[in-house]
């Protein structure tokens, strides 16, 4: 697993300089072997787990003998023509000089990948995160030294750094949605996707080096054939570039998006050996095996199927999972990750590809936004009739039923909605915590609709502003496989931003343009399938079978001690487990996951639970 730590301080401050030396010595004394790809005045960068062309350091030498920084992660040159595969970006001296001269702006414009850049000039230090946030970047301050890091586990392992939950921040997320543009841990901040920090002796400033709304207004593709060609070749080339360093790849396969990725992998010039894995549930809605088998047979790729394992309170696996910067999905992920990791080991695979983000980026949920945007961008033309009919077909409603909604929707939202979620949790939260929860301000510049951006396109790009694509909550066990998400890579996102939503919803179908682009590669049953699968393992058996352990965890836990949950309400609902409502089962399951996260953040290893085998 690739990780990094960067230390930034005022080199003229003797105390901060000594602290930076202490931190460097501390990390180098760990079992982890840290390399130092950059060590400059007041800036030192460490990395571990790197491998060339996969995740690595890209040194910045604006002059042959003078290094000024480093880009960490995966960085590729943007292909400037269709059917050209992006190549690994090893900086030449002129290219490195351009990075410094543009303050990193050229990274967002001429490159793509999953990276974080650290570099400096004589008077300024820069931190820049790639527009998709593929490699996380968090920050805390310790005795005058700013510590930037990719994974919280490295900070949680430091006994001299105190990490504690910001329970007000957790309640804020609970009441106003799950956008993850901040971190509910006291003293820890997050550098957002596309954000650039500039540190100077006089202070700091933060801005964004990439703007999806600007992309959405640049070189818009109105022609259907051009849009099909652009989307097809962009996805093919992106997958090929990501697959190039690997010889054995597992594709997690289920629906349309992952089938498209498998078709692209099958055509990758590097010709990796491919394997597929599919998880199915015990309900009709959670079983995609018919479609999966059609796809893998069509492409002659081996497949392993496994039933979604029951949710268990497995403290051994929990102890092996990383502590994360935000409450994760430990209980859903523990058993599933164990099965997947074993399969990856059995077939000696080096990486997994996953279709996460396809629904949003390829655009599956358009409703009336097609005709609304058509009117905004093209006016009242004959083509509008076809777009309105497709919108009605997608919703299975009459044209006359949706016309008033289209007219009302022309004004569109001016910002991402801040709506209070259901008050189902209020019975559990203490009055003191609820009193501190207020509607959050929309401060992210992407969360406000720019002039010229129609409502549908704003809806399309809004997940980028709310942090919906963050993978921080998907905590894998240590030493587990890496996962790549091609639909969340900058070339694919930018291509889809340039295509109007009525084309993305071609034929009145969610992801309609993607279906057209890859219909020659997939079985027709898969291409034109409209059903959607979802697997939701029941929480009731876990609660009923482990109620005594859960009672002890919750009533004497971090959430009660922190003044977040009402102990009296927890006691009431757990008195008679057999009579507990379905709703209370769900609430308790949710808060149990959060309790486990808070305990891991504090450093608990669950050793007592493992030894006693209570669950």
Strand content: 15-25%
What is the number of strand segments?
17
Helical residues, percent: 40-55%
General form: globular
State the strand order across the main sheet.
Answer: 2-3-1-9-8-10
Mean pLDDT metric: 89
Uncertain ranges: none
**Which class of secondary structure composition applies to the elements?**
alpha+beta
Q: Whole-number radius of gyration?
A: 25 Å
Sheet with the most strands, sense and barrel status? 6 strands, antiparallel
Euclidean distance between termini CA atoms: 29 Å
- The helix count comes to 27
Structural features, described:
The chain is of the alpha+beta class and 615 residues long. Helix content is 40%, strand content 15%. It is built from 27 helices and 17 strands. The strands form three sheets. Strands 2-3-1-9-8-10 form a six-stranded antiparallel beta sheet. A six-stranded antiparallel beta sheet has the order 4-5-6-7-11-12. Strands 15-14-13-16-17 form a five-stranded parallel beta sheet, sandwiched between helices. The longest helix has 21 residues. The protein starts with a strand and ends with a helix. The mean pLDDT is 89.
In brief:
This protein has 615 residues and is an alpha+beta fold. Helix 7 packs antiparallel against helix 18.
Supply database-style keywords:
615 residues; 6-stranded antiparallel sheet; 15% strand; globular
Task: Reconstruct the topology from this structure.
Layout: E1 3-8, H1 14-28, E2 35-40, E3 43-48, E4 56-60, E5 69-77, H2 93-101, H3 105-110, E6 111-120, E7 125-129, E8 138-142, E9 145-149, H4 153-156, H5 167-175, E10 189-190, E11 195-200, E12 203-208, H6 212-216, H7 224-243, E13 248-252, H8 256-266, E14 273-280, H9 289-299, E15 303-307, H10 315-320, H11 330-346, E16 351-353, H12 358-362, H13 369-378, H14 383-395, H15 399-409, H16 431-436, H17 455-466, E17 482-484, H18 490-498, H19 501-504, H20 512-518, H21 524-527, H22 540-545, H23 547-555, H24 558-561, H25 567-574, H26 582-602, H27 607-612
Parallel strand pairs: 13-14, 13-16, 14-15, 16-17
Antiparallel strand pairs: 1-3, 1-9, 2-3, 4-5, 5-6, 6-7, 7-11, 8-9, 8-10, 11-12
